[in-house]
Design a protein that fits this description.
Length: 337
């Protein structure tokens, strides 16, 4: 039976690891005791927007709060927040034997590279989870939007592809993940807007002013990517450069042309919103911060994305997180002026 470790048993880790466990894999989850207590009492309850429901009793999984240096995992899925990547790499370096496979399923651009530098004797591949997972409490994790796991192509994946397929989370491979990661990051520029709106994703995306805020951040990012010679991949029906125009369109046009973008569970929210509600530091530095750092490297500025970062940091400290679309749009336009 395949031996898998999920390092970072939050929403994504519990959902992906739970699907693999339901398909027969031997999965060890590493996470917080708060989550462990939920799973002891309720097991893992998994569902998706297509009506699929799975239940994995706690007896069929292992959950620990610290990685045991004596473990011998064949595959590690790293799903910790980006700020914890260095610590994750250190723990894995002390525990993993040579030759293991590590997949970074994290937000941001450079986490896999950071892990690879710490794990020279393992194969480390960048990956991406394009769908949203909502943690509903009592061990319930719900996939609220469409998408398949994306990962960089490598021969080491061949022995795992059938398991992921059987689990209902097939792997889509790419020769180069960097362009895919930048494309996902463009979409993730909606995360701070969603968090500041205090609305479910579907409701927020249905309102033009909020979409215009995202479009401002995307246009700024696309301009910088073009200057840097970076071409984001096409991971939506429209090319990346068309997304700001679509988002800025009137509601009736957007609802007709972007029906797939609105195929979201009515209760789904961004992980950044969940972090704010839980009082955790968000990943804004690894989303909008990537754009600001790119601007710095190019000798340019990214005022819209920098403003979103500042507003999220204020919200982390107790500031407003119930912005109207109109007010947020005015604030971003003033920052860009």
């Amino acid at each position: 039976m395949p031996s898998i470790c999920v390092l970072g048993a939050g929403s994504i880790g519990c959902y992906v690891g739970g699907r693999l466990a339901a398909a027969g894999a031997d999965v060890t989850f590493v996470g917080r005791d708060r989550v462990r207590q939920q799973l002891i009492e309720h097991g893992l309850q998994l569902s998706d927007l297509n009506g699929s429901e799975l239940s994995v009793p706690y007896a069929k999984i292992r959950f620990v709060t610290e990685l045991d240096p004596a473990t011998d995992f064949e595959l590690v899925l790293v799903t910790v927040k980006s700020a914890a990547t260095t610590d994750a790499g250190r723990d894995l370096a002390a525990a993993l034997p040579a030759g293991g496979l590590v997949l970074s399923l994290q937000n941001g651009i450079g986490n896999a590279d950071l892990l690879a530098r710490q794990l020279p004797e393992q194969t480390v591949l960048p990956g991406m989870v394009p769908f949203n997972v909502v943690q509903r409490g009592e061990g319930r994790f719900h996939q609220g939007s469409e998408g398949t796991l994306e990962v960089e192509e490598h021969p080491a994946l061949s022995v795992w592809s059938a398991l992921f397929e059987r689990a209902g989370i097939p792997l889509q491979t790419h020769k180069q993940m960097l362009a895919v990661q930048w494309a996902k990051l463009l979409l993730n520029l909606n995360n701070p807007v969603n968090a500041l709106s205090d609305l479910p994703l579907k409701c927020q995306l249905s309102q033009r002013d909020y979409r215009r805020c995202v479009a401002l951040a995307q246009r700024e990012a696309l301009g910088l990517l073009e200057l840097a010679g970076i071409q984001p991949a096409k991971i939506t029906p429209l090319p990346p450069r068309w997304l700001p125009m679509l988002l800025s369109s009137p509601d009736w046009v957007f609802s007709r042309l972007a029906n797939r973008m609105l195929m979201i569970d009515p209760l789904a929210r961004s992980s950044m919103w969940e972090d704010l509600v839980a009082g955790r530091v968000t990943e804004v530095d690894w989303i909008n911060g990537e754009i600001v750092r790119l601007a710095d490297r190019l000798g340019r500025q990214a005022p819209v994305n920098a403003k979103l970062m500042a507003l999220i940091r204020e919200a982390e400290s107790g500031g407003d997180r119930d912005w109207s679309g109109e007010a947020l749009l005015i604030a971003l336009r003033e920052a860009a002026a």
